[in-house]
Design brief:
This protein has about 325 residues and is an alpha/beta fold. Helix content is about 40%, strand content about 20%. The protein contains 12 helices and 12 strands. A 6-stranded parallel beta sheet has the order 3-2-1-4-5-6. A 6-stranded mixed beta sheet has the order 7-8-9-10-12-11, sandwiched between helices. A hairpin with a 2-residue loop joins β9 and β10. α2 packs parallel to α5, α5 runs antiparallel to α6 and α6 packs antiparallel against α7. It starts with a helix and ends in an 11-residue tail after the last helix.
Length: about 325
């Protein structure tokens, strides 16, 4: 990696995944610091948007600058690196690649001078921490804080798919971390939208056994659904939650689980992959379903209520079905 960075003639563009999470951003920040250590200036770029509240708070608190790749001229750069979700990102850019690093599988057709794919690693931050150790360079407190938070966020504080490599990376970073800023990053303020979604999700929840499903209604920020699902997981006796809402002619679903017998990512894929997009893993997952025939319903209050009722019936019954229970068996658990 050092040799490839040293060979770059000009400025390096470090491109993260679309709508990057803190782990992807932290990896980009670490690669930027290594490029700087060998005298190469760089810009961290993102695709499409930075939609996650967590990522926006992370960037603001740590003072990390990101650039919109669509507003950059590829010819301005002497090299391009892609970190995280490489396959998806490469399809969205038109540039020759120098460096690609991912903690997932990489398409064999992707060509770059340096390729590092480690599907056995839990986080990008752990991979880049290992490189920092090999570079034998001073570790900036912002870089260390970003990487430690990236590892903790990706592994749910070492409770999800954590490996010995994650623990040793965290131990290496810990002395360099700005713990005051880390605490601020870990406890960001809750937006009004998230609070409203959480309140609606609590009110409309239906619990069957240890499974909770809730309709948050019409929303403007789909990311708030994930935060609501995570909060509802703290209710006594609840091991799995799914919260859904409607935004921009799409039904958005966020699910969380602490049931070791269940892979919530697989469940959402089984339930919705034929009618929309679903992704995730054992403890958290998301799905997006186009409203389809429902989008022809007008925008009046009565029609909005009808749309909400129709989608609730379809989505809630399907969720409980794949969870192995039937909607309406035991009331709302309130």
């Amino acid at each position: 990696l050092r040799e490839e960075l040293e060979a770059i003639d000009g400025r390096l563009a470090i491109i993260t995944a679309e709508n990057p999470d803190p782990d992807a951003v932290a990896a980009a920040v670490a690669l930027q610091s290594m490029a700087s250590a060998v005298g190469v200036e760089s810009d961290i770029c993102y695709l499409n948007e930075i939609g996650q509240q967590e990522s926006r708070a992370f960037l603001n608190l740590l003072g990390i600058d990101l650039h919109d790749w669509q507003e950059q001229e590829a010819t301005e750069y002497g090299g391009v690196a892609v970190v995280d979700e490489v396959d998806e990102t490469v399809r969205s850019i038109d540039a020759d690649l120098n460096i690609v690093i991912d903690h997932g599988e990489i398409d064999g057709g992707i060509e770059a001078a340096f390729v590092d794919a480690r599907p056995d690693m839990s986080s990008m931050s752990t991979i880049l921490t290992k490189y920092l150790q090999e570079f034998d360079m001073a570790v900036d407190d912002v870089v260390a804080t970003a990487l430690l938070y990236g590892i903790r966020a990706e592994t749910l504080d070492f409770k999800r798919d954590a490996t010995p490599a994650d623990l040793t990376a965290a131990a290496f970073l810990y002395p360099f971390v700005d713990h005051e800023r880390l605490e601020q990053v870990e406890s960001p303020s809750m937006s009004t939208e998230t609070l409203d979604v959480l309140a609606e999700a609590i009110t409309s929840r239906e619990v069957q056994g240890s499974h909770l499903v809730s309709n948050a209604g019409f929303i403007t920020d789909p990311e708030a659904l994930g935060k609501a699902a995570q909060h509802l997981l703290n209710l006594e006796g609840v091991t799995t939650t799914a919260v859904f809402g409607i935004a921009d002619d799409t039904i958005h679903i966020a699910a969380r689980s602490k049931d070791i017998r269940m892979n919530i990512g697989d469940l959402l894929e089984d339930a919705y992959e034929e009618m929309g997009d679903a992704s995730g893993h054992s403890t958290q997952a998301t799905a997006e379903i186009p409203l389809g025939i429902f989008t022809g319903i007008g925008g009046g209050d009565d029609n909005r209520d009808t749309l909400l009722s129709l989608t609730e019936e379809a989505v809630k019954s399907r969720l409980f079905e794949v969870m192995g229970v039937e909607s309406g068996e035991n009331g709302n658990g309130g």
